[in-house]
Design brief:
With 96 residues, the chain is mainly α. Helix content is 78%, strand content 0%. It starts with a helix and ends with a helix. The model has no long low-confidence stretch (mean pLDDT 95).
Length: 96
């Protein structure tokens, strides 16, 4: 994944959080009556689907489910008030 793609996706999630749009999937997760539980449920669901795709050995499905999982993790990060930059800094610190 190119960093600029990740940055652009994060920017869209941030924009939806700050400027809700009717019909937005991101807004429906961030503003759900269940609160943070809704994005967390989606992370769990997508993680399970990713694991099953890997177990089944389907490269296209693995990539698709990984993308879904990344996306929902980003939404859950935003819902929890953690910035993507903090996660990237942590990953960078672990490389050294």
């Amino acid at each position: 994944m190119k960093t600029d793609t990740l940055d652009e996706l994060w920017a869209v999630i941030e924009d939806r959080a700050l400027h809700p749009k009717e019909g937005s999937y991101v807004c429906s997760l961030l503003d759900h009556r269940k609160g943070i539980d809704k994005p967390l449920e989606k992370v769990g669901e997508e993680a399970t689907e990713f694991v099953l795709a890997v177990k089944n050995g389907d490269p296209e499905r693995i990539a698709s489910e990984a993308a879904d999982l990344f996306f929902h993790i980003l939404v859950a990060l935003r819902a929890s008030g953690v910035d993507l930059a903090d996660v990237l800094a942590e990953l960078d610190a672990r490389r050294h």
